[in-house]
Amino acid sequence: MASTASIWQGRLSQTGRTAQHWLIEWWRLVNLGAIILVLTLSPSSYSPQSRTVLARHIYINTAPILLGFTLLCALVTVVLTRIVLVTALSYGLSQYALQVVIRVLVLELIPLTAALFVALRCTIPDGAELTAMQASGQLDEMRQRGIEPVRREVLPRVVAGMFSGITLAALSCVVALVVAYMATYGFSLSGVAAYTRLFGQVFSPSVTLIFVLKTLFFCLAVSLIPMASALYGMGEASVRTSAEMRGLVRMFAVILLIEVASLVGNYY
User: Fold this and answer.
1) Rounded to whole angstroms, how far apart are CA atoms 101 and 83?
2) Is 41 exposed, middle or buried (0-12, 13-18, 19+ CB in 10 A)?
């Protein structure tokens, strides 16, 4: 009995430590998000040197991937539109084909794909770079010189990641809408009135609000979580890999929750 009680006591203690560590990690993430928000709205964060660093990060995170992602989105739009049109025509539901394309592609796939694309190409490598700076002691040297690393190194990366995600999502949505129209009506302007009316039916005020908020939260999640993992996951060098993996799992969990919440808001 004493042995069983000690086993259960050990399990409960381990569960309590795990829950405490989990809460601390989420609290650090929320706290870093609040700090980034305050710094973003603070005029002192935009000194001439800071603007130069911010512009460089925005250019590096956006320009190299903008054309490729837009072309990929256009190609996927052509293929998806053709599949939906042919399938809807075979079932006698051709009048709903474009609405399905707009809902599935523009409302759901493009914001999610843009966020994941930015995460894989920009923010996760930025987080790895920040992790290397943390491990080498560069961030501690900045603190000793009176330079705040969050303002100097983290803020430009987070803002650049959000700018890149929003830019990719907005431009790709416009391209997808134009390509879907041309795939359906060709280069004729005869379908503009019907297409505009259909677009207005899909993008009601509530749906538009949910779409904008979802895109913003997606971009915030993929920009902020890798930086938080880099800053707070280096307490011990032996757990660096597991900390990075926990950051990735946390990022995908947040994205999944945002997507589920948007689906509930749009369809329930």
Assistant:
1) 10
2) exposed
Residues 61 and 166: their CA atoms lie apart, in Å, by: 12
Q: Which two tokens stand for residue 114?
A: 């843009």
Q: Which residues, in sequence order, are CB contacts of 240 under 8 Å at separation 6+?
A: 131, 135, 233, 234
Top-confidence residue, 231 or 8: 231
pLDDT category at 246 given cuts 50, 70, 90 is confident
pLDDT of residue 162: 94
Q: Tell me the H-state helices in 119-236.
A: 124-136, 138-144, 149, 155-185, 192-202, 205-232
pLDDT in tens, 38-57: 888 888 888 888 889 899 99
Q: Which of 225, 229, 228 is nearest to 253 (CA)?
A: 225
- State the Cα–Cα distance between residues 234 and 216, nearest whole angstrom: 28
**DSSP label of 189:** S
pLDDT reported for residue 237: 44
> Please, are residues 72 and 79 in contact by the beta-carbon 8 Å criterion?
no
- Model pLDDT for residues 150-201, shown as the tens digit of each residue: 888 899 999 999 999 999 999 999 999 999 898 888 888 888 888 898 888 8
Contact between 232 and 25 (Cβ < 8 Å): yes
Identify how many contiguous H helices and E strands the chain contains and give both numbers. 11, 0
- Local structure of 5: helix, strand or coil: helix
Alpha carbons 262 and 77: distance in angstroms, whole number: 22
- Which has the closest alpha carbon to 130: 255, 243, 249, 43? 243
Q: Rounded to whole angstroms, how far apart are CA atoms 149 and 142?
A: 6
Two structure tokens written together for 87: 């399938």
CA pair distance 63, 53, nearest whole angstrom: 15
